[in-house]
């Protein structure tokens, strides 16, 4: 077997707090994203209007948290310290969020996924994390999700402290902020916290279709064993590729914090998965979603045998509270298996 073949299940990455902070920048796919490179779909005018709103938000004279102290007569939406991009998957929300990051003239600004911020709190502690971000001009939060009440409380409290210090916020999600947590936990028990978080954002709805599926047939191909071996052998000639049994990788993901999944695939040019089976465990499925997100950020092709990855989540899961997460993952899996 080629020495360029690695097994992700052999890797147990360790990431320090400093390394986690250093990684709070747009992923490679969006390191050059700008408003000019965003192409609004003319069929959906909200995409162009959102782009124009965000250009204004990113300018030095854009909305600031302390404005409400001096301009109480302005409309509430204009006084919000943050913008919240709500829309389906594949409409360019992360591209626009990265464009906000790049266009905002700030000395201290950060860009990370929701899970990266909560992982940082876990690694450094709440107070140290607040102190780290205190005084920053901009915090960008991609894929804002509140999957448990603990995250709700932590993020609400932290964002409140940062906003009071002058930090602007920009976030994306597939769920409007006043609906975060629906179908996942007893959201009514945390309505005050969820509402407080919602009040800090001007919600901007982006309509559109998933750009990733405009040029594909909507199915993640499952390769034969021979075709799989050929694909990995060809790729391994130029770069390291991973080769793992799907079930073993899913079990391994439970032993690695999701904030470290990117380290699992460091220096890998292609991901190989053998004997894919449909997932029926919610926790395992959500970990796989987080893994797919990191693979997509790194734009790593995936090759697989067994069950089609576009059908990896059960019908029961797709009907539940995490439906949008699973559909986004399927969209990304189709893109990565056909690239």
Automatic annotation (TrEMBL):
Biological process according to GO: cell division
Keywords: ATP-binding, Cell cycle, Cell division, Nucleotide-binding
InterPro entries: ATPase_AFG1-like, P-loop_NTPase
Name of the protein: Cell division protein ZapE
Classification of source organism: Bacteria, Bacillati, Actinomycetota, Actinomycetes, Micrococcales
């Amino acid at each position: 077997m080629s020495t360029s073949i690695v097994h992700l299940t052999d890797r147990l990455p360790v990431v320090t707090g400093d390394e986690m902070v250093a990684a709070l920048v747009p992923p490679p796919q969006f390191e050059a994203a700008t408003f000019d490179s965003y192409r609004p779909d003319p069929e959906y005018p909200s995409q162009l209007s959102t782009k124009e709103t965000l250009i204004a938000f990113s300018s030095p004279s854009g909305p600031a948290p302390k404005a409400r102290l001096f301009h109480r007569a302005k409309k509430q939406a204009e006084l919000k310290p943050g913008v919240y991009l709500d829309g389906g998957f594949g409409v360019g929300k992360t591209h626009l969020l990265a464009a906000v990051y790049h266009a905002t003239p700030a000395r201290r600004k950060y860009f990370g996924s929701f899970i990266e911020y909560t992982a940082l709190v876990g690694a450094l502690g709440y107070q140290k994390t607040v102190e780290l971000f205190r005084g920053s001009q901009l915090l960008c939060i991609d894929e804002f999700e509140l999957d448990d009440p603990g995250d709700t409380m932590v993020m609400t409290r932290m964002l409140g402290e940062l906003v009071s210090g002058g930090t602007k916020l920009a976030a994306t999600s597939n769920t409007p902020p006043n609906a975060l947590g629906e179908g996942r936990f007893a959201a009514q028990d945390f309505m005050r916290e969820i509402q407080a978080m919602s009040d800090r954002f001007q919600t901007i709805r982006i309509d559109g279709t998933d750009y990733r599926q405009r040029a594909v047939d909507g199915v993640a191909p499952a390769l034969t064993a021979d075709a799989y071996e050929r694909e990995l052998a060809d790729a391994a000639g130029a770069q390291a590729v991973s080769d793992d049994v799907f079930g073993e990788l899913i079990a391994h993901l439970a032993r690695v914090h999701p904030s470290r999944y990117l380290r699992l695939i460091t220096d890998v040019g292609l991901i190989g998965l053998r004997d894919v089976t449909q997932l029926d465990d919610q926790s395992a499925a959500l970990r796989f979603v987080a893994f797919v997100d990191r693979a997509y950020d790194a734009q790593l092709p995936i090759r697989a045998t067994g069950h089609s990855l576009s059908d990896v989540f059960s019908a029961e899961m797709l009907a539940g509270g995490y439906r949008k997460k699973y559909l986004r993952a399927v969209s990304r899996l189709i893109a990565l298996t056909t690239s």
